[in-house]
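Human:
Focus on the backbone:
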Amino acid sequence: MTAQNRVQQMLHAPLLPTLLQLATPNVMGLFATTVVIGYDGYILGRVGADALAGIALVFPLSMLMLQMSAGGIGGATTAAVARALGAGRHEDASRLAQQALLIAALLAVLFMVALLGFGRGIFSGMGGRGAALGAALAYAQVLFGGAAVIWFTNVLAAVVRGAGNMLLPSLLLLGTALLHLALAPLLVFGWGPLPGMGVGGAAASTLAVNALSALVMVAYLLRPQGVVNLRRTAWLPRAALWRDILRVGLPASLSPVISNASIAVATGFVGHYGTAALAGYGVAARLEYILVPIAFGFGTALTAMVATNMGAGQSARAVRVAWLGGGVVAAITGTIGVVTAIAPGLWMNLFTQDAEVLGVGAPYLRIVGGCYAFFGLGLALFFASQGAGRMLWPLTASMGRLVVLVVGGWLCVHVFETSATALFAVIAFSLVVYGSTLAIAIRMGSWTR
């Protein structure tokens, strides 16, 4: 199917079949990401509880970089390219791709400087101590030292998706995931005469396979016949196109900043209960990072469909797309949450047999798992809002979640000195606030005012 045919399909074809057709490759590819997240936890769990605790400290910031590059700036790039193509502005679509990569380079440098320069203070402030702090630093120094690889890979994929090709990025996710499954244990534990890198080996493997993916997408976007071509115009900063991306991308990036600040705050509060509690929470909460790729798989399709229809002046159809996608994602994430709430061992036993760690992780899933439908709904509507270029309410919903966690967590830890289960109830309520706030706002017409 040509790019122009894909645009017409998003504008006129039946919604559910179109959404499923666009989202299925994404979900399949991002399922590979889900496997990688779980696999890394399994591999690092063999290193020890301190490694798990250390990775729990890094995860909010590594996921922040992923969500900003793939979901914030990446989603804004997909939306901008799709809107340009929907309006018939093909030259602008190529220029937008170039500008997005320049923005990615700048933000990669900022991440590198922040985490390499101030990582110890950041992770200590989140509760990292001793060997757990050492593991966090070892992982972060490798991953954020190669931040540009992650940024370029995700923004290139966003450009390709904005042009309507959901298949190529998904195939690359599948292929690089398979490579990572083979490479990561070799780099973590060593092979033959080659010494292992420890926890940093998992990060090194992530960078290596992402670099390969980026090279393939660069080659694809340099094809002369491509609807988006990186060589079509000169590589010069263009203020108007930066504004087109950043007016959505900056608010969209602020939302995962707030979201991951929420996770970091929760991690810090859990850290008051000890290293075993931190490890148990880290393993249990890792499931949420698996729900994110599922939502992202549908979300990227939602961004493209909503943006294309908004660009063509079909706002009512765009709203219908958002509700359809939100309902599908909520059903999937809610089902996963209920299953793990009923049987938390299905997840926890994959990573650890430590009784103390299990004693924290299982109650977390029993309490929080039932609210994962709201988490999925909020994430799906976040991506749809990117396509519409309406980011006020996603930010408001994310801020509401953070406020609940800060106030509720502080009361649990410092005022009432409750057990960890009360803190987990606060985390669950914060997810309800997040999803319901955004859903109510869209239902009240925030896109059309």
The chain has a mean pLDDT of 89. The chain has 16 helices and two strands. The radius of gyration is 21 Å. The first strand starts at residue 190 and ends at 191.
